[in-house]
Amino acid sequence: MTKTILTGIRPTGNLHLGHLFGACNNWKKMQEEYNFFLEIADVQALTDNFNNPLKVRQNIKELVLDLLSVGIEPSKVHIFIQSKIPEIAELTVFYSNLVTVSRLFRNPTVKNEVAQKKELFGNNGESITYGFLGYPVSQAADITCFSGEVVPVGEDQLPLLEQCREIVRKFNSIYGETLKEPNPVLSNEKRLKGLDGNEKMGKSLGNAIFLVDDDETIQKKVMSAVTDPKKIKKDDPANPDICMVYYYHKIVTEKEDLENVCKECKNGERGCVACKQELIKNLKELLEPIREKRKYYEEHDEEVKKIIEEGTNVAKEVAKENMKKIKQAMEIDY
Ligand code: TRP
Question: What whole-number distance in Å separates Cα of residue 334 and Cα of residue 1?
Answer without folding.
Answer: 32
